[in-house]
Amino acid sequence: MTVDYAAKSPPGAARDFGKLWAGQSASLLGDQFMVLALPLLAVVTLDASPAQAALIPMFLFGPFLVLGLPAGAIIERVPRRTAMIICDALQAVCFGLIALLALTGHLSLVVLLALVGVAGCGTVFFQVAYTSYLPVLFTGTRKLQRGNARLFLSESVSKSLGPVLAGPVIAFIGVVAAVAVNSLTFALSVLAVLWIRTREPRLPQQSRERPRGWLVRDVRDGLHFFFRHPRLEPVILCGTVYVLFLTMVEASLVLYSRDVLHLEAIGIGLVVGATAAGFPVGNLLSGRMVDRWGVAKTLVVGACVSVTGLVAMPVAGSLGSVGGLVAGSVIHGIGEGAFGPTSLTLRQTDSPPELLSRVNSVQRFLLWGSIPLGSVMASGVIAAYGLSAAVWAGALGTVLCIPVLVRRGIRAEFRGTPPPSDGAALRSPAAQSSDA
Predict the structure, then answer these.
(1) Fold that domain 1-208 belongs to in CATH
(2) pTM greater than 0.70
(3) What is the pLDDT of residue 399?
């Protein structure tokens, strides 16, 4: 037996989505402050070396490699709204402690990295619960697509405005106060989620006792469903290949702009930030694209546009055209901005409610877990062949995501053949029997 969400959205769903959107927008903006604030805090306040400060992202994203897959099974055993509240509160406490300890002179680099790692654990569980919660409020592909596009729009805008606002804020109130502001944004997100009145239906596994070995079994069933699904598997693996090579570009772009193109700080910021300018355009276009072309064509077009923009960047750089480099970055952002919310909507509509969190955890594990590997690949290419080679290798490598995407159900739908509609039929026998 599977749990079906109501055919119509529950009363007050639109208002509750507004609360979720507002809270998440606040915390996303605060996160962008940390992109500048945490390394500066480590270097300026703790006298850490740049190499030591570079460990901060590893501690923040490292938990995805350890907890990414189990998080989905665990989240499905608890109400997702409750999980979001706990995880946001945990991150608020961690960043609040960082600010308090720094203010009182008791913060060390080890403590900073430990608290960032704990906050990273909260991020893992929040992301899985958050991406699995929207179907509680909205049903149907069109409503989900519009809701996801708005949530992705907030992420895009925060990436555009966050670093721009963070500089003056840090200069005016100081780096410790900026960390405290981030803690406050998570507290606001907690209040926003607490304010949500819609309650999610109880999933079958939430009302059962946890037998021995349930975690391993649930993770296995989630992976089984993912690898057998004709549309989810190519889309998520496409994203994994894309992020792996995109990380090579992003890890090299700042130094490439400075050392190869000889740009000043303002020019480097323009090149790096141009991608974020394209994201909102793609987010806003994604709904219309799905209405007109369907999910498969929207995903393929979005991926092709993004890859085209990325390949255009080293081409423009080799010609010495900064304008072309910026244009390629914007085009890449537009394509990725259309792909992102569409792929999330696909996961929400093609996954049974009792498996959605596990599918989202597989996606987070593969995509976010590929970031450290992409960084290592970029470092190796830079050391052996230079910055230009790393940008070229990363940009051309993203092209490999297209053949990974255009397979199985995506290829069938692209050609006009409807894919299987009953996702529950694809589950493993163990998963099906556990719902009985």
Answers:
(1) Growth Hormone; Chain: A; (1.20.1250)
(2) yes
(3) 97
